[in-house]
């Protein structure tokens, strides 16, 4: 029994069935037995919202009057996934609803599948925000999201003739039942124009004129906590024209101009940029960044003033603005603009308030992802913001040159504005009291390499908070059978928010053969479920008795799906050469999207699909080897995939993956990691022990060493390895059904293999072989799997949020 169920309006199965039936009939004007699944879904969604809304209203009331510190996550992505099931579980209806529906002759999973999975993010960065919101609400703690309500989410991926094809994701087509439009909370965002100064009452005043106004309209999505009474808000902003038509233009007969300005305004929240780790520098993206920063801060400031007799004094004691990567870094100059221009604070006091309010998380060290906006673009689009950035930079450099007069080169290096560009990471670091990386190794690289000059100046600002994921979504809901098995074995303490480390008790059962058998049974069911999905969607039969070895994530050179693919080609070559040799049956599963403009990544997708086609159609490999590329990887398919995995492929070039979070989702579902010593894999290894993980390849230090000092020649590696030579030749000699992959071949052989694929190939093959051999010993394999689950508690996002709370936002 949870607290939630103790309320007067306690939901029971009978009441649920009655209410649900009534709701379906009201909505559809059909008897339940004649209603469609779509109406059943809508009825269930409405019932959920009717129950959450009063609690949400109470939370909003309390947040207005109480004085707890509030956190706002500013992020250009929130990859929230489907919400209906989570809301139901959070309400404490996790048994009532499925049982009730079953008694009504309905299928719960079919109803849940009607929800369009909102794809308002590319991958890890946006999903992390969703996990953090989930954890904050579970821990009863006021943290809210602030982002963009994209009309089109991340494209849907189809595979046609082995290649990725992008289809627009019109997720709002049939409406979205979990958002509430708040038109009366709309604000105006100003672009372009010019800034004029004037003396007003003896004060130099900046007047922004001739700008183009765009209306930001908020839509709020409730974020409910697990079995508690917390409901926080995710606020997503939609861009609209200030007046539907520019009336002047219309009256003068310029109809097209009037419509044009409407669509220009709307274009700001039209589509999510589909590239992670690629900075394209487009004007529309800059507009998006300022859009949610400006709108979000306006409402926060307005609310604070209302609570504090019209003053912003004490703001930084009560409000934390968390900048998720550099996309919202303009929070720094925008808040300065509000304080100095609108609220008449002096610069120094305003700066102090700004730095104390802001904290910044960096998510990547890849140079191509670092945001650098051309000065003239920013100056034209956001003239006053640019002036403020210039002033921040001027004062910063003045201070540095005063303090460190002999460090001229360094002082130039850390400038916000240099070489005609605005360096957003520098702006974020200088304007925040805290900078953190997302795993130990990543934070170390930030301190010692990427931001070493800033670390020398502000050592106290640098922190690490290793990422975490929501166990409630990725384990308890996605793998209910596992959750139940664990609860039957060690009780349910670990299911309580912030308590996942109690899973450690499972270690006692690591060698218990009864428990091992049951765990194996759960895994087998999850593999069957995924095999069924693969059969239905791809018409490929996979053997659920084979090892499920899975790599799912965005497709990127540094993540090295290519290494996995080349190894599969090598295994296939071996099988063809020795069809009767002992072979441990294996199914290799891939999924992930490539940025539409990333040619190399798209070639990798094609290669995997070509290999899959060839191998799956060869009678020689039947029941032994299959390869599957599951199209359109998203949060929903992820929930089906992680629970079925036995091997979790985390094989990025060491030093490149800041953390990874898929690695944690696999681990808590009992998969064994096969990976490099990179990102959070290192911490997984520390917690699970080296006996329960497979590691291989160069270390981050070795990679950095080669990069700094040279000495790596991929052709030498190739010359020494005939198996690898054979595979590489097959890329270009037509053996792959006539398709050739010259771009890939050239990158690895002629361009010296930036990501050390060939260098790590031999050790990857060895570790793959070892893991397959180990799998044959069921007892020791199950033990490894149990040790992974038992030690996964630390990778809950509840732990990450608790660390942010203590070390960064300083909340008791
Ligand atoms: O290692 C992951 C990390 O786990 C990292 O690559 C990813 O963030 C995850 C969460 O911390 C990430 N995404 C982006 N940068 N790092 C990114 C960059 C630009 C646009 C969109 C996403």
From TrEMBL:
Its cofactor is pyridoxal 5'-phosphate. One of its GO terms (biological process) is glycogen catabolic process. The keyword Glycosyltransferase applies. It comes from the Bacteria. The modification N6-(pyridoxal phosphate)lysine is found at residue 665. One of its GO terms (molecular function) is glycogen phosphorylase activity. Its EC number is 2.4.1.1. InterPro entries: Glycg_phsphrylas, Glyco_trans_35, Pyridoxal_P_attach_site. NCBIfam families: P_ylase. This is Alpha-1,4 glucan phosphorylase. It comes from Pseudoramibacter porci.
């Amino acid at each position: 029994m949870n607290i939630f169920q103790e309320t007067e309006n306690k939901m029971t199965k009978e009441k649920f069935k009655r209410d649900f039936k009534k709701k379906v009939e009201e909505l559809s004007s059909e008897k339940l037995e004649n209603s469609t699944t779509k109406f059943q879904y809508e009825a269930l969604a409405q019932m959920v919202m009717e129950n959450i809304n009063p609690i949400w209203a109470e939370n909003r009331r309390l947040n207005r009057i109480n004085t707890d510190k509030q956190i706002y996550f500013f992020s250009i992505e929130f990859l929230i996934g489907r919400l209906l099931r989570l809301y139901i579980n959070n309400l404490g209806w996790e048994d009532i609803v499925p049982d009730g529906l079953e008694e009504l002759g309905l299928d719960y999973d079919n109803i849940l599948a009607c929800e369009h999975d909102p794809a308002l993010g590319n991958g890890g960065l946006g999903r992390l925000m969703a996990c953090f919101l989930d954890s904050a609400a579970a821990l009863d703690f006021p943290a809210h999201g602030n982002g963009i309500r994209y009309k089109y989410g991340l494209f849907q991926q189809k595979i046609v003739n082995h290649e990725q094809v992008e289809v627009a994701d019109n997720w709002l087509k049939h409406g979205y039942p979990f958002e509430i439009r708040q038109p009366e909370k709309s604000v105006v965002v100003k672009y372009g124009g010019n800034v004029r100064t004037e003396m007003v009452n003896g004060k130099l005043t900046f007047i922004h004129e001739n700008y183009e106004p765009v209306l930001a309209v908020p839509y709020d999505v409730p974020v409910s906590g697990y079995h508690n009474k917390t409901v926080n808000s995710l606020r997503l902003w939609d861009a609209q024209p200030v007046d539907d038509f520019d009336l002047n233009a219309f009256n003068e007969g310029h109809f097209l101009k009037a419509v044009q300005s409407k669509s220009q305004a709307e274009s700001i929240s039209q589509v999510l940029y589909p590239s992670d780790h690629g900075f394209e520098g487009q004007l529309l993206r800059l507009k998006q960044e300022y859009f949610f920063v400006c709108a979000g801060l306006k409402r926060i400031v307005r609310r604070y003033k209302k609570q504090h007799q019209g003053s912003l004094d004490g703001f930084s004691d009560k409000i934390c603005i968390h900048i998720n990567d550099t996309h919202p870094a303009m929070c720094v100059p925008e808040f300065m603009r509000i304080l100095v221009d609108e609220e008449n604070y002096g610069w120094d006091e305003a700066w102090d308030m700004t730095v104390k309010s802001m904290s910044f998380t960096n998510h990547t060290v890849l140079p191509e992802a670092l945001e650098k906006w051309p000065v003239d673009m920013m100056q034209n689009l956001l003239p006053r913001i640019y002036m403020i950035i210039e002033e921040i930079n001027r004062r910063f450099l003045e201070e540095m040159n005063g303090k460190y007069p002999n460090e001229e080169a360094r002082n130039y290096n850390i400038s916000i504005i240099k070489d005609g560009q605005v360096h957003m990471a520098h702006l974020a670091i200088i304007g925040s009291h805290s900078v953190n990386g997302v795993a130990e190794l990543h934070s170390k690289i930030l301190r010692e390499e990427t931001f070493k000059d800033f670390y020398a100046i502000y050592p106290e600002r640098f922190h690490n908070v290793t990422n975490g994921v929501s166990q409630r979504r990725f384990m308890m809901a996605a793998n209910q059978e596992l959750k139940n098995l664990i609860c039957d074995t060690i009780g349910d303490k670990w299911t309580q928010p912030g308590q996942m480390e109690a899973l450690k008790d499972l270690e006692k059962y690591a060698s218990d053969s009864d428990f091992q058998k049951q765990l194996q049974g759960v895994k087998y069911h999850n593999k069957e479920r995924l095999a069924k999905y693969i059969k239905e969607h791809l018409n490929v039969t996979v053997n659920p008795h084979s090892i499920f070895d899975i790599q799912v994530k965005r497709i990127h050179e540094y993540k090295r799906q290519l290494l996995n693919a080349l190894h599969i080609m090598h295994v296939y070559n071996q099988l063809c050469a020795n069809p009767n040799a002992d072979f441990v049956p294996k199914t290799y599963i891939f999924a992930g999207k490539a940025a539409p403009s990333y040619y190399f990544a798209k070639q990798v997708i094609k290669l995997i699909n070509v290999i899959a086609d060839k191998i799956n159609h060869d009678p020689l490999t039947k029941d032994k080897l299959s390869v599957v590329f599951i199209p359109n990887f998203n949060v929903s398919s992820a929930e089906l995939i992680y629970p079925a995995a036995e091997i979790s492929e985390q094989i990025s070039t060491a030093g490149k993956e800041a953390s990874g979070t898929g690695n944690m989702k696999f681990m808590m579902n009992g998969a064994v990691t096969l990976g490099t010593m990179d990102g959070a894999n290192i911490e997984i290894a520390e917690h699970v022990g080296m006996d329960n993980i497979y590691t291989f390849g160069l270390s981050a230090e070795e990679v950095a060493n080669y990069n700094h000092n040279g000495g790596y020649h991929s052709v030498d590696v190739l010359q020494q390895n005939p198996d690898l030579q054979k595979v590489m030749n097959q890329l270009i000699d037509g053996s792959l059904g006539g398709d050739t992959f010259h771009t890939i071949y050239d990158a690895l052989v002629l361009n010296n293999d930036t990501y050390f694929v060939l260098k790590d190939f031999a050790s990857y093959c060895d570790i793959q072989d070892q893991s397959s051999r180990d799998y044959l010993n069921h007892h020791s394999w199950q033990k490894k799997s149990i040790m992974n689950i038992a030690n996964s508690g630390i990778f809950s996002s509840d732990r990450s949020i608790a660390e942010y709370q203590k070390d960064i936002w300083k909340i008791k």
